[in-house]
Design goal:
The chain is built from 17 helices and 16 strands. The protein has helices spanning 2-10, 36-59, 71-78, 80-83, 115-125, 133-141, 145-154, 165-170, 172-178, 222-232, 249-255, 270-277, 299-305, 330-336, 339-342, 356-379, 389-398, and strands at 21-25, 67-70, 85-86, 100-102, 107-110, 159-161, 184-186, 213-217, 236-241, 259-263, 282-285, 310-315, 383-388, 428-431, 442-447, 450-455. α1 (2-10) crosses α2 (36-59), α2 (36-59) runs parallel beside α16 (356-379) and α16 crosses α17. It is globular and about 65 Å long.
Amino acid sequence: MTDIKYAWSALGGDPARLARLTTVEREGALEARLPVPQLARACVGVCALAAAELAARRAGLAAVPGVEIDDGAVATAFHSERLLRIDGRAPVAFAPLSRFWRTADGWVRTHANYPHHRSRLLGALGLPADPAVRDVAARFAELPALAAEEAVHRAGGLAVALRTPQEWRAHEQGAEVAARPLVERERPETSRPRELPPPAPATTPLLPAAGLRVLDLTRVLAGPVATRTLAVLGADVLRVDAPWLPELPDLHADTGFGKRSATLDLGSGRDRFEELLGSADVVVTGYRPGALDRFGLAPEALIARRPGLVVAQVSAWGAYGPWAGRRGFDSLVQAATGISVTEGSAGEPGALPAQALDHGTGYLLAAAVLRALTERSYDGHGRCVRLALARTAHWLTDGIRPAPAPGAPYEGPHARPAGASGPLGPPARVAGTPYEGPDAWLAETDGPLGRLRHALSPVSFAGGPAGRTRPPVPWGSDTARWGAGEEAGPVRDRW
């Protein structure tokens, strides 16, 4: 279980807390050549532990509540966007032009789920607005993979050449990613402390993020998974999108639980945004590094204007290296980093059993926010945390050890001596029955979008929420205002 220990250390967590964590391991969950079950278990495990830690801190509890992470719940949650049903209808996963294509010397992976990305892809290939798939395939077949990658990138579209693990390690961006920590954490020099209240009496259930206001400026999956998790834990999450960039409806439904959704032009609506920022506790962004800086939304600038603010950023490639400004998605990162080669067969590229980079990074991002809030509770200062899908991919391919045999005891540096009583060691492992499907971790909820079948949150701890929250609302259907209590103005003594 060194993977959980590594992730908890990357978050700055106290190693002693790991004794509060137990994992229920099930064969058959998220099976792959790469150690996806360990990645998923570690990401969700540290998120739940960070939630329990903050809950204990805010409620003044003497001990952190126990945490149990079940592989079945984790595997189900990592497939949430695929398992979603809206009035019985299955979601649309990928658009026809989002796929692998053979090139003159290899393969490229494209992403064209959004109309503007599809348009840019076709423009780069010199094709009409509605070509036949065979015409796109024929155009790619004429081009070397790297040439296709660069042409589409220059046009503002998304295409990545398939690389082997060795080719990615030798790539300048791959080297930059490998040199960075899994979670980048800092307290900017612009941070000023904010006076915070003393602990409040414990409530039932324990909601570590209750009363906290989160501005959600994210899209697609990793960022929205993080903010959905914060909403389940009690936060008031307001997702804000540009009016001209609607989210894909099915992804919005899957990640919109517990949130409100509004649109706001950050150019003409700057005063409204500043009002929202004036009582925010957390801002989460999921755009390309630097893309929001022109609106005054660089982390240092945000923290300078709002004392005690926690800013969390997630990107595809990281805020460094030659690809810092590139767009990216989970499937493209898998192709670039060699994962698709490792998971492929018969000369064709493959994929992980879930969008594991998105989901894993999303839970790590939520964990980083929760840990930053715990740290802030001691000194009142704001924090900035950053994660990248490519860095999570590096951890998966180069950092996580193969799984031990089922039922093998924990043998890490903190294992319990033979014959000793008390917790097994940080963390404990329990062998569960094989994973036979998601049904035990699915629920049905009626809401504004219809009757939803959806995955329950895998983040749980003793006395905490049961994984349910209010259903999602239609995209952009709320006003860009906080919920009840905003009219009282910024609340100095709110966590």
